[in-house]
Design goal:
binds coenzyme a persulfide; 11 helices; four-stranded antiparallel beta sheet; 392 residues; alpha+beta
Length: 392
Amino acid sequence: MVDFTLTDEQKALREMAHDFAAKEIRPVAWEYDRDGTWPEDVLRKAWELGLMNTHTPEEYGGPGASYLDGTLIEEELSWGCSGIATSISANGLASAPLALGGSEELKKRYLSMLTEDFKLASFCLTEPDAGSDVSGMRTTATRKGDKYVINGSKCFITNGGYADWYTVYAKTDKDAGHRGISCFLVPRDDTVSVDKKEDKMGQRASNTATITFNETEIPAGHLIGEENKGFKIAMMTLDRTRPGVAAMATGIARAAFEFATNYSKERVQFGVPIAMHQAIQFMIADMATKVHLSRLATWNSAVLLDQGRRNTIESSHAKRFAADAAMEVTTDAVQVYGGYGFIKDYPVEKLMRDAKIMQLYEGTSQIQRLVIARETLLPRRVDEPAAAVAAG
Ligand code: COS
């Protein structure tokens, strides 16, 4: 049965997240964007309300929210500010590999650490010379007795400067391409340095840093999953987090659509509100359709996960469509505002800058098309429970 009706609990959750976005995020969003500062006070409030670590199972102190619930929250937070929403949701990205493949001991210690206190974790996959091409990474993990020693640099790491631990992908077999990558949990210590905080076009409230591991020693038990199986964990993580990014893109698009719609009713040109002109009406109509379809694709990709089914293609459909739609909708919102849209006294130029990252992070729009093309032309295994994919 296909039913898009939310339960009363889901409606209440969405309302709570919306309320938080309206009262705690929106009023400060443009200030944090202007200054490029990190909104620790907002993040602490989100943590206290249970809007961080939403997918962490109850046994580790989290609310164990479903993937659909997560998309409801992420759309609302991103409607407030996607930079702040990215900072709030980054623990989820870092925790996903641990939840997927970590030992019970590791999960108990490190997932609980994030729910017991306001602590942060970061996901470290990308490197200066290995973005879309994950297999090209150079960071290494060398086994020495009962330890691994990590060396290398990871870039574009959300909350990297503030994280207490990192999920790090590194080569354990340099000559084996994607089959030589392993995933590790690396606590922050003196050998971990934060080298650079990026000065970004958009999402300026989120902290994006380069993290370097210099002879960083971790216990062998900090390996997540099996040695040389890290690439699969990374891909499975992204299958689970891309619906959240699609939800954030939907939130940005919806914010731009609302601002443009309201403005079109107030702005008078040629003697009538510009909403009376068909040229504007068609832009508003296209925005409405794109927001609507972005949300449907997002929910679909999340519900499959909640049903324990593989969602690789649906996740890429949702992320690709919603990201591209957010870019188009925010660009059109600037157009509806005319010259005012281009200046910082009005809200939509920030949204246009913020939307751009949606087409870049957690897999570019081109990588999503590559995944969609492969899944279409050479389908792997469809409708398999996630556990079977993990074991495969
Ligand atoms: N779930 C489980 N396993 C998967 C998978 C998925 N979604 N996608 C791929 N795999 C497995 C394949 O089954 C294959 O397994 P075998 O080793 O048993 O053959 C292996 O992973 C390699 O798959 P593939 O051949 O498709 O890998 P490629 O290197 O050719 O391409 C892309 C993978 C380009 C899709 C991948 O590198 C990617 O997603 N890049 C973007 C990375 C990204 O999003 N970066 C953003 C960082 S997070 S902010």
